[in-house]
């Protein structure tokens, strides 16, 4: 065993990178669920974002355009879900699952010409002397823009839901859509906006995988990250701060266990391999152990179909 | 004859032709563990499927299912294939072993071919390639190329096939570089690009400058390329898009000749349950081009090893070799028997990690 081979600063930096796709998808899904919509298509939107971003980045040579395209792609796909569930009032669970299947197949179709191509690299912002601070510089100031953007999004979503009037309206729609409707709010319109936001976030997360974290296009490359994001939203009891914690815990333990393996730690590898799931679930379950309060957080209209005539 | 009767008779003729063809057409099913676009393992199996189509044309119909999880789902997929009239089913991953046996019992008239497994029945054959021969070549090159003397190895699952590879690579790296050290990470997945990239990054951060992978995607290649001075090897497929660096050589699985043979056997009615395990010699394992990043003398050394393995004059597991705990395994000049290799669950002496139980 040689733990000295693991550099904590490098580890912390790579856990942030590993957690970012899940964090982005989860924070988007949090807003969607807060508006009372259960979109199980996160995986499909992520992978669609991954290929849209990859294709556009390769064609234009600009990763920034790629990320924009990924957000557009994810949002467009989520609006298909939005149209089906909000306008045609289809079942949200079934439609969400179908969205995942569709996204996986659709991305494989677009992606056929992009296997084995290398995407243009995204320039990292140069934070000058900040990045040279020992330890902290490596952890905090040596990342690409998307990592900072994802952290900013968490704060923005928290502020939006907690302190702003539109945030209150969105929550009202999620808690009781009939009451919100009676007050004159456009339930369907608000939900469609939330769904599109969630799709854009998932798309961005997917593109982070294909453009920065891996970086390449491979069919099925999200490999379940969307499902993890969905689970984290629930275990985080619909709170932005806990979503961040959950995503970083998952990403952190996932990276840590690989490092521990490489260092030859005498812990059964099966246990290490399962540890990201175990630790994340344990910590978040313990944190939301106060059942009364956790139940209050779940949007009361989650997954229910809204029709103005009800 | 007006247009309508013309169309009707054409449709009738087509229908007849279709019905006739359906009777003698051999239907071949493939079950894949990853997507065809993985650029590695499944991609090569699908090349085998395409080779069947090219060889037999209309006499054979092929169907396939991608990304089938190992376990109960595989049983469902194979049952579906058997019910829809498949005559021969190739199950192309180790974890399909028990599902294959279960489904084969239910469909005694359907023939099954299971890759890399060891359970057979009257209608179940197994086939595999001696990947460890390729691993020996990689180990030699890796031992010569490493400067940090740390070689990283990404394993999928601790099954004999993967452990053979680790041992073969280690033995031959050690022969040319006594200071070499292996760091092994188990991904517990055949295909998860993000995880494979993370595993490669973890190994590189801990000082590895050569990465061997036994997982199916090209993600570790991309991670190595980003890190700079790291060398890798293509796994299952050539992965030439990462040549000449980081990918400096590769193991290519060439299933086409075997697949064509087996389909021919079904057509001829001579198919029987067999166990095939071919290496570099018969061409089931190919070594991809050794790129210009490798010095000429190392390349020559590797090519000599390839030739010796191909002709059979040298076996990748030749004694004296001890097991990890120091007990003797093979005496001077003795070579490993296939039964031990197929059940290999131990490391050779010198490796520091433990085989996960």
From TrEMBL, chain A:
Which UniProt keywords are present, listed alphabetically? Cell membrane, Membrane, Transmembrane, Transmembrane helix
Q: Name one cellular component (GO) term.
A: plasma membrane
What is the top-level taxon of the source organism? Bacteria
Name one molecular function that GO assigns to this entry.
Answer: transmembrane transporter activity
Question: Quick check: keyword Nucleotide-binding in the entry?
Answer: no
Query: Which CDD domains does its entry note?
Result: TM_PBP1_transp_TpRbsC_like
Give compartment(s). Answer: Cell membrane
Q: How does it sit in the membrane?
A: Multi-pass membrane protein
Show the PANTHER family listed in the entry. Answer: ABC TRANSPORTER PERMEASE PROTEIN (PTHR43370:SF2), SUGAR ABC TRANSPORTER INTEGRAL MEMBRANE PROTEIN-RELATED (PTHR43370)
Which protein are we looking at? ABC transporter permease
Q: Which organism is it from?
A: Rhodovulum strictum
Automatic annotation (TrEMBL), chain B:
GO CC entries: plasma membrane
**UniProt superkingdom:** Bacteria
- Give start-end ranges for the coiled-coil region(s): none
Locate the transmembrane regions by residue number. none
Signal sequence region: 1-22
Q: Where is the ABC transporter substrate-binding protein PnrA-like domain?
A: 26-298
Q: Does the keyword Lipid metabolism apply?
A: no
State a single Pfam family of this protein. Answer: Bmp
Q: Which Gene3D superfamilies match?
A: 3.40.50.2300
Protein name per the record:
BMP family ABC transporter substrate-binding protein
- Please name the source species: Rhodovulum strictum
């Amino acid at each position: 065993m040689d733990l000295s081979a693991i550099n904590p600063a490098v580890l912390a930096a790579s856990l942030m990178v590993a957690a970012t796709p899940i964090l982005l998808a989860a924070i988007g899904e949090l807003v969607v669920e807060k508006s009372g919509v259960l979109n199980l298509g996160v995986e499909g939107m992520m992978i669609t974002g991954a290929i849209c971003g990859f294709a556009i980045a390769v064609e234009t040579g600009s990763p920034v355009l790629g990320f924009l395209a990924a957000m557009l792609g994810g949002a467009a796909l989520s609006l298909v879900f939005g149209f089906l569930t909000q306008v045609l009032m289809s079942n949200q669970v079934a439609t969400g699952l179908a969205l995942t299947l569709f996204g996986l197949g659709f991305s494989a179709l677009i992606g056929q010409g992009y296997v084995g191509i290398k995407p243009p690299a995204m320039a990292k912002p140069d934070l000058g002397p900040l990045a040279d601070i020992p330890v902290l510089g490596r952890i905090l100031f040596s990342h690409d823009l998307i990592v900072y953007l994802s952290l900013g999004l968490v704060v923005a979503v928290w502020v939006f839901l907690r302190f702003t009037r539109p945030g209150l309206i969105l929550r009202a729609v999620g808690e009781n859509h009939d009451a919100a409707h009676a007050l004159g709010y456009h339930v369907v319109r608000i939900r469609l906006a939330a769904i599109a936001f969630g799709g854009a976030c998932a798309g961005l997360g997917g593109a982070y995988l294909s453009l920065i974290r891996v970086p390449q296009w491979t069919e099925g490359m999200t490999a379940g990250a969307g499902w993890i994001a969905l689970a984290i939203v629930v275990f985080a009891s619909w709170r932005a701060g806990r979503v961040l914690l959950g995503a970083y815990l998952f990403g952190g333990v996932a990276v840590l266990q690989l490092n521990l393996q490489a260092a030859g730690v005498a812990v059964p590898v099966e246990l290490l391999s399962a540890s990201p799931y175990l630790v994340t679930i344990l910590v978040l379950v313990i944190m939301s152990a106060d059942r009364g309060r956790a139940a209050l957080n779940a949007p009361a209209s989650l997954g229910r179909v809204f029709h103005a005539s009800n | 004859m007006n247009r309508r009767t013309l169309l009707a008779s054409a449709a009738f003729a087509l229908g007849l032709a279709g019905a006739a063809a359906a009777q003698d057409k051999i239907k071949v099913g493939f079950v894949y563990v990853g997507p065809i676009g993985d650029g590695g393992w499944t991609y090569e199996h699908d090349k085998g499927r395409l080779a069947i189509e090219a060889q037999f044309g209309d006499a054979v119909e092929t169907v396939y299912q991608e990304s089938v999880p190992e376990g109960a789902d595989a049983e469902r997929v194979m049952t579906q294939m058997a019910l829809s009239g498949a005559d021969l089913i190739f199950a192309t991953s180790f974890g399909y072993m028990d599902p294959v046996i279960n489904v084969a019992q239910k469909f005694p008239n359907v023939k099954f071919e299971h890759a890399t497994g060891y359970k057979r029945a009257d209608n179940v054959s197994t086939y595999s390639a001696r990947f460890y021969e390729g691993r020996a070549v990689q180990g030699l090159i890796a031992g010569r190329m490493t400067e940090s003397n740390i070689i990283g190895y990404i394993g999928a699952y601790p099954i004999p096939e993967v452990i053979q590879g680790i041992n073969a690579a280690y033995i031959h790296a050690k022969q040319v570089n006594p200071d070499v050290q292996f760091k092994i990470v188990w991904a517990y997945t055949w295909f998860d690009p993000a995880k494979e990239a993370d595993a490669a990054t973890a190994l590189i951060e801990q000082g590895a400058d050569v990465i061997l992978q036994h997982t199916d995607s090209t993600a570790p290649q991309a991670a190595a390329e980003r890190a700079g001075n790291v060398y890798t090897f293509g796994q299952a497929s050539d992965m030439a898009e990462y040549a000449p660096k980081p990918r400096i050589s590769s193991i290519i699985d060439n299933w086409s000749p075997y697949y064509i043979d087996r389909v021919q056997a079904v057509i001829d009615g001579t198919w029987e349950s067999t166990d095939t395990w071919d290496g570099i010699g018969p061409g089931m394992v190919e070594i991809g081009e050794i790129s210009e990043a490798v010095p000429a003398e190392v390349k020559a050394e590797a090519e000599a090893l390839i030739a010796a393995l191909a002709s059979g004059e040298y076996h990748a597991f030749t004694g004296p070799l001890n097991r990890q705990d120091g007990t003797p395994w093979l005496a001077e000049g003795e070579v490993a028997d296939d039964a031990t290799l197929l059940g290999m669950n131990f490391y050779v002496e010198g490796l520091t990690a433990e085989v996960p139980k």
